[in-house]
Write a structure and sequence with these properties.
The chain is α+β, with helices and mostly antiparallel strands and about 260 residues long. The protein is built from eight helices and seven strands. α2 links the parallel β2 and β3. α1 packs across α7. About 30% of the residues are buried.
Length: about 260
């Protein structure tokens, strides 16, 4: 009986040892699998970072290698008398519906101020809405803007108005290059000159630099409007929000003119 009990005990111990060994082996396999998965994830993340850094560096190189268009003032296009006491900065995207609305509401007032010397306007078009078209329309329109002011700055106001009057809807393909060229010609630019610049995206690097500058200033949406460096806003429930209504804009301009 003693031998039988001892034999049983030995078998149980052996079984327990085998079970414990199996558990350890299973844990080791699980740890190895988790480690392998983590390693794959880490490699993927590092590869993604490297790719993004390479793309960023390439974009920076493209921007740096592209000469800006002529006739810029403070990296924007100036309309009005250089000596005007009030400076209105207008940051806008040619695909932005809110920018179109701003232009509709304020075009007459802005024109009056620039003509009578009350204020000068620095236009800073950017391309933050490429994702809202299937053809990077914001960049293409901004490139066309650069081509126009480089070739014939006097054509800016007409071209600028045409782009907003005929603004395409978000989510579509945007205006084709041929239409951008036609509007530039309508504004008074030589077709051969503007056609080459538009179709080759001659100023693409500059459009990237201009748009990066917008983001680096901490601006997040268009239109962004400043009067003598102060953002045009109004208080709503104790918070400052953008307000580009003609009356509010006039309040800021009047205050700046008096200051």
């Amino acid at each position: 009986m003693v031998n039988a009990r001892q034999a049983k005990t030995a078998r149980e111990k052996a079984a327990a040892m085998r079970a414990e060994s199996a558990r350890k082996e299973a844990r080791s396999r699980a740890i190895a699998i988790v480690a392998a998965v983590i390693a794959v994830i880490v490699v993927a993340v590092i590869a993604g970072i490297i790719i993004q850094m390479a793309k960023h560096n390439q974009d920076e190189k493209v921007a740096a290698a592209t000469a800006p268009p002529a006739n810029l003032t403070n990296d924007g296009f100036l309309v009005g008398k250089a000596g005007a006491k009030v400076t209105i900065e207008v940051w806008e995207d040619f695909l932005c519906p809110a920018c179109q609305n701003f232009e509709k509401l304020n075009a007459g007032q802005l024109k009056k101020w620039t003509e009578d010397g009350t204020a000068k306007i620095e236009y800073h078009p950017v391309a933050i809405l490429d994702h809202q078209s299937t053809t990077n329309y914001s960049t293409r329109a901004l490139n066309a803007f650069a081509a126009v002011i480089n070739a014939k700055p006097d054509a800016f106001e007409t071209f600028h108005a045409l782009l907003f009057e005929n603004q395409p809807p978000e989510g579509g393909s945007g205006l084709p290059d041929s239409q951008l060229i036609d509007y530039a010609v309508q504004a008074g630019v030589d077709r051969a000159v503007v056609e080459s610049a538009v179709t080759s995206l001659k100023y693409k690097g500059w459009t990237q630099k201009a748009t990066n500058g917008f983001s680096q200033k901490g601006y997040t949406g268009t239109p962004t409007l400043l009067v003598n460096g102060k953002k045009v806003t109004t208080l709503v429930n104790g918070k400052e929000v953008a307000d580009y209504s003609p009356d509010n804009l006039k309040t800021y301009v009047d205050a700046a003119a008096k200051g």
